[in-house]
Amino acid sequence: MPIPQRKQKFVRESAKEKIYRTLQSWIVNGTMKPGERINDQEIAEYFDVSRTPVREALQRLSEQGLVYVEPSKGTHVSPLDENNTFTIYEALALLSGCAARLACQKQKNGDVQKLRELNAVFQKAIEAGENQKLATFDNQFHGYLLEMADNAYISDIIYTLTLHANRCENLYFERGPDKMASVREHNAIIDAIEARESEASGRYAEENWLGFYHRRLAKIL
């Protein structure tokens, strides 16, 4: 019958999405370590599903570069490589610079205030020592810039790159010094947008990502 078949398909796709999001979160926040082997049977038992949605979720994660499949050795969490990490931040810097310029040009009433509020939340989390929340609040700030830029192509690419960057940020925000540097860099972006200086907005956004890598992550990786 059509209705039961449709319902069954919806449940299967929902399970795949849940597994995908959960595994993605575990990889990004460090619950699953770089190089760790992923046993699809164990994952299936954990979620009480067949191995099919697990394999589909792992395929999506592989396409994003978060896991890799090694013949006869199974699926593993992708390692954190210093050279590859710099390439990620280099791309993020260039694309975020474009996004910040567009955000400056397309800004609407209330956007600057919203950016200041998001950066204030980020700063309070730093001051409170809430290290596990910092990447999330940082993403919210940059995510709002992307909303202002209103370019789906840039947003989609930055989303995937940010997943990889967040793996490093979670490591940095637990161990690295001078977390307030990111707050100051965000303020520079906001001030430039408020002044409607699009080139400066883009330059500060680029410096935010590259500065993060050069001044902090390069010392950790």
TrEMBL record:
Keyword terms: DNA-binding, Transcription, Transcription regulation
Key word Transcription present: yes
Presence of the UniProt keyword S-adenosyl-L-methionine in the record: no
GO molecular function terms listed in the Swiss-Prot or TrEMBL record: DNA binding; DNA-binding transcription factor activity
Short name of one Pfam family: GntR
PANTHER family xrefs: TRANSCRIPTIONAL REGULATOR, GNTR FAMILY (PTHR43537), UXU OPERON TRANSCRIPTIONAL REGULATOR (PTHR43537:SF5)
Protein name in UniProt: GntR family transcriptional regulator
Originating species: Pyramidobacter porci
Lineage, broadest ranks: Bacteria, Thermotogati, Synergistota, Synergistia, Synergistales
